[in-house]
Hints:
heterodimer, A: alpha/beta, Alkaline Phosphatase, subunit A, 2 domains, B: mainly alpha, serine acetyltransferase, domain 1, two-stranded antiparallel ribbon, 2% strand, TAT_signal (chain A), Alkaline_phosphatase_core_sf (chain A), Sulfatase (chain A), DUF1501 (chain A)
Amino acid sequence: MNNNLLHVNLNAGGEITRRNLLRLAGGGFASLAGAGFLKSLGVNAEELKRQGRSCIMVFLNGAPSQMETWDPKPGHENGGPTKAIQTAIPGVEFAEYWPKLAKLAGEFSVIRSMKGKEAAHERGRFHLRTGHRLLGPTRFPHFGSLVAHKLGDPESDIPNFVSLGNTVSSGFLGVEVAPFIVNQAGQLPANVKAMQTGARQQRRMELLSLQDQDLVAAGAKRIAHEHQELYRKASKLMTSLRLKAFTLAGESDKTKQSYGGHAFGKSCLVARRLVEAGVPFVEVQRGGWDMHQNLWQNIPKTAGEVDQGLSALWGDLRDRGLLEKTLVICLGEFGRTPKINQKAPAVGRDHWAKNFNLLIGGSSIQGGVCVGETSSDGLEITDRPVSVEDLFATMCTTMGMDPYEELITPEGRPLQIVSEGFEVSELLT
Amino acid sequence: MHERFRRLRRRFTFCVACLSGVLLITSQCIEAAPPRKKGRNPANRLPDLKDSEDKLKFLEQIRSSFPTVKSRRRSTYGSADLDEQLEKYISRETRTPLAPIVDDATFVRRVYLDVAGRFPTSAEIKQFVSNTAPDKRSVLIDELLETEEFARKLARYWRTVVFSESNANRNSVNPQAFEDWLFEEFHADSGWDRMVGEMVSATPKRKKDTKPQDNGWHQDHGPNNFVLANERKPELIASATARLFMGISIGCAECHDHPFDKWKREQFHEMAAFFSPGRYYMTDQYDPSQKSVVEAKFLLGEKPPKVLKPDQRRVAGAAYLIYNPDNYWFARAFVNRVWNELLGDGFYSVDSLGPDKEVMHQLVVNRLAASFRYEKFKPKWLYRTILNSRAYQRETRTIERTEDLFTAVRPARLRPYEISDNVEQLVGENKGLSSAINRTFEQDPSIPQRDLEGSIQQALLMMNNGTLNNKLINSSLKKQLMKMKDSKALVTEAFVSVLAREPTAEELSRYEQHIKTSSKRNEAVDDILWVLVNSSEFITKR
């Protein structure tokens, strides 16, 4: 069932608002509305195309090793004891810990030549989520906030950016498109049931709005306006029919099992439900990748959960016909040293930003492409380096957003979404 | 710029020599050792400095030979000098007019929040507003600075600052002991230098045959918790020391040269070497199987004598941090944090200063920092000076441009524990509610106020939390309000009790109207309490 139907709002004049109509159209009802009618509303093809697009970002907190994920180096001492397995892409091998994704590899793509600039966690997590380095007082927004800003319905009754776990925020774009953080995947957000309903609640909200206006008069414009916005959003969420997308209600045991009983699997399943309910951006996380020590002791379990959850998510999105409009990207903040360290009690790999890898697929991204190559010792990129900025240009393009558009910061400074990057054209269909 | 650097370099070298001299001379004082023989490698005559008492005694010796303390020079820099200097510099930056000074009612609310960490009670407000003494503001400031609440406010703040980025195992730290120790120190108006000296030089060791949670790391000894919060790891301690006590962010230099600043990777590791329990190794950036030994060297180039043992080396590190007169960052970082807490903006972001050019009104903050040092780093002196200034007592305004900084006070979000305290003041103690508020409003106190934002979850909690709302409609305040027949008096009392101020004429008539048009007075009162508790003002300092 298409949940987009559930939130058609009428404006004061009783007309269906333009945004919602577009959502209807994007949800596969374009033929009902009629292209001529849409044209009369001033909708261009470009805008129509990007409606209904979503993105799921799977972030591997702590930075996974490229050599134990999708760029193994068996036979070289830097490769360690990790074995390689054949994927569905001829000539491309994954590390042995990823059997499920290896079988699906023909449907998405790998970038093995990511070239980062940050090798500290906080700076890397910022760079890889915003496309900008942490620099100066201006905070660039999370890519999810950008998507929410560009593609989200500002009147939506459910946040346009949901993150299962703490993440980078919306920076200068403000609370309007800040991530809604969920700490327990599969549960309703706390305190969503209203104390009062109907006219009395409405009266309270009116009085509250006036009260906040008094703080504006006292000089606290920013805090008060933000407060009003948050209460408006909270009120909408409380009565939203789409709230159940946060839960696992109605999912069969078989489905739940396929995603895995662990927190990561549940997060992936919730991500699918949220995207299905029309949320344009969802972030999902699995931590524990900062394996300075005990790398080979820990990797089977950590990778195993992600392999299971992510492959189930992929298959589910495909089977439900959501893949063509959903970008899925799986990455961490940087890579790990190709040379193995000497840490006790068991060795691991340290921080490394010179080259790392990631998975990207869905939306208009080609399947089965392996971009770039690293040397057999893993120390150098030998073919087609891809910068973080190139990656973000590609993400923007496939989401139907102009990567070179300028955003204006509250201080009036224009900032390009991507300033020094070019889309990876071989990935785009 | 380069010239200035070279000059600074030369001065650093000189002061390093002085400090090393101090280390050796004071060691002679302690042990009354025979005069040092000439030779390339002087023998290590320092006491072991293994326990904290020895460390403090030793730091105290260095302190007593510290130029600003030794000279017994006292600062004559007061609030009026501060205002004069600041206003002069502001007028060069902007034409935005300075905001007017707040009225008594706003002042009393603000100063209670800033010094005692809570709203004033209705009796406290009345007493202050009706007082006609011309110096009543500074008298109230003095009174509040002597309260236990002031010491508690500062202790809680620093506890959150130190622990908000900590990933230490809960069993090996005791944040409450840390807070309680800080409380005692702030209450006694100890110098900030002593507190930091004790934190940074601590070397908590593992007790044998004891579980970690049973004080196995001596975490019940408050000052040990800075090092324990940083998991006793040299790199973490070094990074936190620079960030919290110098306001400099060098953490990323752990892995590579600082991308936008002058800090080199090697410098970071030289600093970390001070906190190593033995020889310190730096891992090669490209080949982690390779390591090289790094000798301790502080950020301004101070090198401790090679003969020092690890405990001694750590004390030397603390001394370089605090008592190197050229390390102006140390005093300034504390001043900037306090300023940031009181005015809503710092002269620079409190823990991420890059090059000095990012400092706004540099001469003012440097002067204030130098005076703080002359006043032996006494926190109460600093608070008193700022609280009595016009700069602090201006009305609030949302400041959009850097040039306009300090033309007004920036409205600030209350800390989570202050919100939960104010809630408990209304509905009585409740652990579950209090921890829900603290969790939902959690924030890193080092993030500038202008970058803090609320969340939908916070709104949902205040609007709908069952415990909060049930307790509110059954609170003693509610009962008290229900006894009042006069609606005007009722609304006034509700405002004073919840928002710590009287309603404006417009607010008064708005809520009187609401009472009149509601079918049940009981429900109208519940609505008013709900609205006030949910208002942005309830969680904001103005």
